[in-house]
Amino acid sequence: MQPHFDGATLQSGDHTRLQTALSRVWHLMRDGQWRTLREVADAVGCSESGASARLRDLRKTKFSRQHPTREVQSRRAAGGLWRYRVVALETYYVAMTDPANRRRDIVAVVQHDWGRRHDAVRAARTLHPQCTPQEVWTDDGQDFHVLGQCWECGQPILDSDEEVHRGTGHGEYLCGTCAATDAAYGLRLGLKPEELH
After folding, report:
1. Which of 116, 156, 168, 170 has the largest CB neighbor count within 10 A?
2. How far apart are CA 169 and CA 130, in angstroms?
3. Following CA atoms 26, 27, 28, 29 in sequence, which dihedral angle do they give, to the nearest 10 degrees?
4. What percent of the chain has a predicted confidence (pLDDT) above 70?
């Protein structure tokens, strides 16, 4: 059952229209980008006042099951203009293998900020420290394999990561951030890039 919108003047057909507008606003804003009401309204096909009302709806608990949102942020821009940003939540499922029985027998369900799959894998490892994460997926069909973790910072390495450096040993990885730091550190010591690995 979907939650109902408030308002004494609402008619029966308004709930479907408002629910559709709310879904459009949430799907647009869940990327965490700052937007003005005009930008939101233009993108989802509603008025600025409608966009403002739907952003207020995302702050309400009764809409959080269908549109999980941690918070709606606002900040004043130049000339009295306001920008808005939604910190949306996403449910991640992390399949984990228990080394004691070598089966993928645990699926940790973690709710975290939208697009933060690495943090979801970290949270699953905290929940089940004896297990090794193998795969992470979301309700909207995104599926990623966990290759390992960075040997310096512990960041989970997923098959979707663009800047990953493979070490010399099996399952050794260095994330892009640590690789850049290591390269800068090595260059300060006078090492050649090929001597860093």
Report:
1. 156
2. 22
3. 40
4. 82
**SS3 state of residue 94:** strand
pLDDT tens column, 101-110: 765 577 878 8
Rounded to a whole number of angstroms, the CA Rg of the chain reads 22
Pairing mode, strands 103-113 and 82-98:
antiparallel
Tokens of 176: 């892009």
pLDDT at 188: 43
The string of pLDDT tens digits covering residues 31-47 is 889 999 999 999 999 99
**One CATH from 1.10.10, 3.90.1690, 1.25.10, 1.10.287 for 14-67:** 1.10.10
DSSP string, 96-142: EEETTTTEEEEEEEEEEETT-HHHHHHHHHHH-TTSEEEEEEETTS-
Could you tell me the pLDDT band of residue 171, with boundaries at 50, 70 and 90? low
User: Do residues 40 and 24 lie in contact, with contact meaning Cβ atoms separated by under 8 Å?
Assistant: no
69-76 vs 35-36, strand pairing mode? unpaired
- Which amino acid type is present at position 17? R
Picking from 9, 31, 22, the residue whose alpha carbon sits closest to that of residue 140 is 31
Question: Token digits for 124?
Answer: 């699953």
For residue 84, what pLDDT band results from cuts at 50, 70 and 90?
very high
CATH 1.10.10 residue spans of the chain:
14-67
